[in-house]
């Protein structure tokens, strides 16, 4: 069957509201809110669309994973990864509409999670519905939809390992993806890793009157001294021994793709209102194959209004490292602890929050090349290939355990605002992305 682009795109626009109840469920994993209701909705919706199997997996703990399976007209099988949990909507006073009441305005669809990433699953469900009414699916489809992505996907690896047989496929299409700041579509083949941790320092049993700062230690100063000891203030380079050792160089093809990535420094400065220069002269390569040590937040002593003159007894910081492929989050965490001890801060308590591995599918993989070729046909020659995102996700079990090539293609754009108030997508992107996915699946159906 040859697809009519206008027909598919119009179908997507006409039918997105068929799935709008998905956006109305406040499935906030951080608050354990709406998880069961949302996963129940997914199971029922997959069944309504004719899934041969639609069920919840709860055998490995955590929030349930929804698994669904559809039979297609070929032997080729695509596994989709999505997540149904979303970030909390706060601050509520910055929203222009109810975050859990999908609102269409000026060609945009606004709701919490519509970009990250409920809207993408809605588009995928719409494509299933379209094919159901137009000759059947060109390939077999499987869906793995988890409910803990926004809190670290702690159980994904366990579920993938326990359900390897059900999850067997030829390739995986991940969540995320869309158009960059230049409005060029991107095909992405991986993620960076992450390790997130807290550091706590205690220097006394109680806060002390600040007049005694002449001789008592200050937990806030000590924490800052310890963190500063991990970084060269002049170059920004992390001084942790072994921190960069496991990073592998990009291949020539990857390096060429990175060099062609869109990056407009002035636009970035304007978008984020940056008040200082960029911290690197090589932002493209750093986003793909660089590693970071970031202070996410600091807390110590009295932080209320007015004056309270104390020497704080304790101080805490939240930090994360974004990691390149081949870096082990657990190893990096250990190196950081060892360096703090070597620098004289062995009394610091370091607590791990989240650890996820990086993963990258080789650019030369036929599945990646088909995704890129289809994208250039749909979106034009300015389509970009990105070896991996700057962010993370639980991709490694799908690549390593299931041995699947993975690409990320989606429907958002650079200003969609995931995790922020007024998160949204453009409906035109939703329509284009639906046609791209339908065309891509059609192409894959000829592979077997």
From TrEMBL:
Q: Which UniProt keywords apply?
A: Hydrolase, Metal-binding, Protease
Single GO cellular component term: cytosol
Q: Does the keyword Metal-binding apply?
A: yes
> SUPFAM superfamilies from the entry?
Zn-dependent exopeptidases (SSF53187)
List residues of the Peptidase M20 dimerisation domain. 190-343
Q: Which InterPro entries match?
A: Cyt/Met_Dipeptidase, Peptidase_M20, Peptidase_M20_dimer
Matching Pfam families: M20_dimer (PF07687), Peptidase_M20 (PF01546)
GO MF term set: metal ion binding; peptidase activity; succinyl-diaminopimelate desuccinylase activity
Enumerate the Gene Ontology biological process terms. Answer: lysine biosynthetic process via diaminopimelate; proteolysis
Please give the name of this protein.
Peptidase M20
Originating organism: Limosilactobacillus secaliphilus
Lineage of source species: Bacteria, Bacillati, Bacillota, Bacilli, Lactobacillales
